[in-house]
Amino acid sequence: MSMELNLHQLEIFLCIARERSFSKAAERLRISQPSVSIQIRNLEDSLEVKLFERLGRRVYLTREGKVVLEHAKKIS
Q: Please, what is the Cα angle at 28 between 39 and 74, to 5 degrees?
């Protein structure tokens, strides 16, 4: 597995985790919602884990997402 750490993706991940919403994170970061989705999909692909469970309009961290969140908080 080649994992490329992308700080922009981590910033987006942290904002989604805080807001519990892709669209609210996009609004706060002033980027498009599709861009947020693409960046998270790329991050999930590079880490080979699913970070969020999407239920309706809300998103919740998966078990793996919670682990990534703890590490991302230390980096940011």
A: 65
